[in-house]
Amino acid sequence: MQSIKASSYEIVFNTSGYEILNTLIQTATYSKIFIIVDSHTQEHCLPLFLSTLETSIAIEVIEIVPGEENKTIETCSGVWDALADLDADRKGLIINLGGGVVTDLGGFVASTFKRGMDFINIPTSLLAMVDASVGGKTGVDLGTLKNLIGVINNPKLVVIDTGFLATLPKIEMRSGLAEMYKHGLIASKAYWQQLSDLTTMTTNDLNALIYDSVFIKNEVVLKDPTEQNLRKTLNYGHTLGHAIESYCLSHKDLKKLLHGEAIAIGMILESYISAKITGLPQSQLDQIHKVLSDMYDPVSFKKNDIEHIIELLKHDKKNSNGKVKFVLLESIGKGIIDQEVPNELIYEAFDFYAATP
């Protein structure tokens, strides 16, 4: 697959990606290489990745505990301590080998240790391939509040090897698929239609869909790298989705949701709101509800749950002057930013979500 040019780096794919990675390492004269993994990627992905590296530079592996609940400043402190103990300097290179938690946290660690080290993302989950590893957003959660601490800082390279997807459970694949659905909903009706029926999907089809998803996100980021306008559309489904994810993480009586599972719920809710505020046609709302409900298991929310979820909206990063700002849809393929939504409409949206499509 052809590489995708981002603002200051390339997104490269599969075997050719490793060739470009090795060339970069050989020409950049790094003092040492630090590979950040979690316990899953340490076992399932690291041996394969190390077999592709062609370098005599010293390599150190730093392992973190997997899971969104460990995407914290405390975990960063552990990695910073490890880097200091291993005599890391600003001429070192950090390679983040893992899913969205590893690429988000590893990018933030690299961006802040000694005021900045180069880093490369090697995403191993579908979610990280199509979303987290691309676009330069790095960061960690503040308690259960999603991604409140972080910076936008681009990697030197992103290598997407879809072979790593063979190590993923189906639930993780579905989580990543949610971000691909989002890319279609905000930017490409044709892409959304491709994703609407995956019953006959082949490996080649999946590779092409991943490529197109990355291409869509990169085009948005190129036009608005610091999220002043257009890039906000990438948060579609995330205003309520992040609040739902945070709420479920902090309540032991509720099932913890993977990021994509929460975002899928958020997209159904925000599609209903879109039909009421920005004119999303009823037929498109029904299609979105049906496709996402068929893909993701339903979650039951009580009135008290919804009240607390709405309260969490005040922490959303898109808020301005104390007002919650939503991304809504005018139609499939066209997102509208900076929309205010009354709370009563959010309650209605949860009623709609609970109904069978």
TrEMBL record:
Give the EC number(s) listed in the UniProt record: 4.2.3.4
Cofactor(s) this protein requires = Co(2+); NAD(+)
Key word Zinc present: yes
Q: Which residues form the 3-dehydroquinate synthase C-terminal domain?
A: 176-319
Keyword field: Cobalt, Lyase, Metal-binding, NAD, Nucleotide-binding, Zinc
One Pfam entry for this protein is DHQ_synthase
- Per the record, the domain of life is Bacteria
Q: Does the keyword Metal-binding apply?
A: yes
| TM stretches of this protein | none
Q: Which Gene3D superfamilies match?
A: 3.40.50.1970, Dehydroquinate synthase-like - alpha domain
CDD domains in UniProt: DHQS (cd08195)
One GO MF term, please? 3-dehydroquinate synthase activity
**Annotated ranges, domain 3-dehydroquinate synthase N-terminal:** 62-174
What biological function has been recorded for the protein in this entry? Catalyzes the conversion of 3-deoxy-D-arabino-heptulosonate 7-phosphate (DAHP) to dehydroquinate (DHQ).
- Cite the NCBIfam families for this sequence: aroB
Task: Please state what the protein is called.
Answer: 3-dehydroquinate synthase
Origin species: Dokdonia ponticola
Question: Which gene codes for it?
Answer: aroB
